[in-house]
Hints:
Blueprint: H1 3-14, H2 20-27, H3 31-50
Function: Might take part in the signal recognition particle (SRP) pathway. This is inferred from the conservation of its genetic proximity to ftsY/ffh. May be a regulatory protein.
Organism: bioreactor metagenome
Family: Belongs to the UPF0122 family.
Amino acid sequence: xxxxxxxxxxxxxxxxxxSEIEIAHKYNISRQAINKRINKIRGLLVxxxxx
Length: 51
């Protein structure tokens, strides 16, 4: 998945307030895959704000 797709998942989950299940159905991926990608973006954000 591209970083833009991961950002879109993050946006859907936390800005648009979609549930993991709604996102899983929309993208046809598992909830675990969603969480893995969201955590990747969280890690990047934390790293960016530490600098």
